[in-house]
Specification:
two-stranded antiparallel ribbon, mainly alpha, 79% helix, 2 domains, single chain, globular, 27 helices
Length: 576
């Protein structure tokens, strides 16, 4: 009899591989990853990139005798950094057909269509600034050549001439960067995104319909509802890319939730559209694809300080915030408590989704947590860089602080960019390190909920129950990270960057991941009724929990970042 139970359970678990949402998120995510690898790692583009890297390396080796980085060295380095496998026809195809509405100021139609006349006018408007920047760059280059030639003539034995050459080359680099940015504004091309968006909508509907079919759901009903979700996602991109909206960090994710909620709580989400609101299906697929962006070589590059900031502070904040909610605030719902705690301490919506699945939180609790996260992310994205600059916090420390506290990966990069390139690099890398904890958090919550929160006295919980509760898509996230990291590492830093970062990811997984996330936020909004959320706000406890938890997170992260980057490992900070 026991054997029959084991056999039946085994059959059930086997059938889960093609009937459950978590597994279909993995299959779809890995389909995109493997297709991208198949194209970029076996193409003529790879051969061309390898030749250009070898030529640039040879130049840099020849210039290694100088005690400073020469003009030729920097030009070779720029050549390598500019190599992108996404310039392959497949990459151009993917990037074209996954475009989202662009930026605009007054007329929202500008995000969909730019005429030939508009493109020419924009280019002409930007041309004078480019010509000015170009002239300054050429002047700086000429001065740098004179200074470098003088140092070279002295066989680099004159320290004064060496320093003068180094300073002149630095000025040329700054001027060249300004000229490059100005030139980009002159390269304005006409476009019409309407056919592109129609084609993308059809593709995504069919793409997600594969899993819908095998999960036993109605494909026609899903597709019918999907197009409303997609439309809301498109409009969310339009509003998120408006000049003022971008300035204040209110992006497509937040607008997707807001627009969806407006529809759901005014005219009401149509019944025919509800089967297209597959919130978790969309975001789980996106999270598997996110794994391809969490590369171990980048984690190692920033070293132990970043790991301490992400992997020591985060679990402390998570546990303390949960205990605070249970013991001090007396949160009536432990699942809401842990989802908010994970959302705020780990990495926002991604961690919230994984944690909600592990503890079986209600849909309304997940929506509430994500809503809080989006609001506070927008506030912190603007407030933190302003505060850091006002009090004079060093750029690396500011970047580490931002990376460990702001929830959204995109908002982290944008906030870091306000401070400078070093801050953006440190912030984005620490957030990437923190993303690894999505799987650890989900597993820990699954174990705790099975053994403590829902375990009856005298009852022992087996591993099968923990496995049953554990969100399987997290395994896809981890597997994607390990696979892509291993392949990128085997290629080496420069080739890996060109083929993986600027090929597999930029021209394959990331565009699909961005749309999957946007669809999930639109679906959240369309599925949310304010009346269902009202009782969770009773006494304002969720807001108090988030504010107190984030305040503790801000203080502890700043302290840990200062100790690690400036006291324990200052030599690592000096190299960034």
């Amino acid at each position: 009899m026991a054997d029959d139970v084991v056999i039946e359970r085994g059959k059930s678990q086997l059938s889960d591989l093609w009937t459950k949402e978590d597994y279909w998120a993995i299959w779809l995510g890995f389909f995109v990853i493997l297709v991208s690898f198949g194209v970029y790692l076996n193409s003529e583009t790879r051969v061309e990139i390898e030749k250009k890297i070898a030529a640039a390396n040879q130049i840099q080796q020849q210039e290694a005798a100088a005690p400073f980085k020469t003009i030729a060295w920097y030009k070779a380095d720029d050549e390598k950094k500019g190599l992108k496998a996404s310039s392959h026809p497949f990459g151009k195809f993917v990037l074209h057909w996954t475009k989202h509405p662009g930026g605009w100021d007054v007329n929202p139609l500008d995000s969909f269509i730019r005429t030939e006349e508009q493109a020419k006018a924009a280019s002409a408007k930007a041309m004078p600034k480019y010509e000015e920047a170009k002239a300054k760059a050429e002047e700086a280059l000429a001065a740098a050549k004179i200074a470098e030639d003088a140092a070279r003539a002295a066989k680099f034995q004159d320290a004064t001439l060496n320093e003068a050459a180094k300073a002149a080359i630095g000025k040329w680099r700054d001027a060249a960067k300004a000229a490059k940015e100005a030139k980009a504004k002159t390269e304005v091309k006409p476009f019409n995104l309407i056919p592109t968006l129609i084609g993308l909508g059809v593709f995504l509907a069919l793409f997600f319909s594969i899993g819908t079919f095998f999960m036993g759901k109605s494909v026609p009903a899903f597709i019918q509802g999907f197009f409303l979700v997609f439309l809301v996602g498109v409009l969310a991109y339009v509003l998120g890319n408006q000049t003022i909206s971008k300035q204040y960090g209110f992006g497509a994710e937040a607008w997707g939730v807001v627009l969806g909620m407006l529809i759901a709580n005014t005219i009401g989400t149509p019944q025919w559209a509800k089967q297209g609101c597959e919130v978790e299906y969309f975001i789980k697929t996106g999270l598997v694809l996110l794994g391809a962006e969490v590369l171990f070589n980048k984690i190692v590059a920033i070293g132990i300080p970043g790991i301490f900031v992400a992997w020591v502070v985060t679990p402390i904040v998570l546990i303390v915030t949960f205990i605070f909610g249970q013991k001090v605030l007396k949160m009536p719902s432990p699942t809401l408590n842990i989802v908010i705690s994970a959302d705020m301490s780990v990495c926002g919506t991604s961690a919230a989704i994984a944690t909600a699945a592990a503890c079986r939180a209600k849909k309304e609790e997940l929506t509430l947590s994500i809503g809080l996260s989006l609001v506070f992310t927008a506030i912190m994205m603007i407030a933190m860089p302003a505060f850091i600059k006002a009090v004079g916090i060093p750029e690396v420390l500011g970047g580490a602080w931002i990376g460990g506290t702001i929830d959204s990966t995109g908002a982290v990069a944008a906030a870091g960019a306000f401070l400078g390139p070093k801050a953006m690099y440190v912030a984005a890398t620490i957030k990437m390190i923190q993303n690894v904890l999505i799987g650890v958090t989900a597993f820990g919550v699954a174990v705790y909920w099975c053994t403590k929160m829902e375990c009856r006295e005298g009852e022992r919980v087996g591993l099968d129950e923990i496995w049953h509760r554990f969100p399987k898509f997290v395994l896809g996230f981890l597997a994607a990270s390990i696979l892509v990291s291993a392949i990128s590492g085997s290629l080496g830093g420069e080739l890996g960057s060109a083929l993986v970062d600027n090929g597999v990811v930029a021209g394959g997984t990331k565009p699909i991941r961005d749309w999957a996330f946007t669809l999930s936020f639109a679906a959240i909004g369309l599925s949310t009724n304010f009346r269902e959320l009202a009782h969770y706000f009773k006494g304002g406890k969720p807001v108090i929990l988030y504010v107190c938890g984030q305040s503790f997170n801000l203080a502890l992260t700043l302290a840990m970042a200062y100790v690690m980057f400036y006291i324990v490992f200052p030599e690592i900070t000096a190299k960034i």
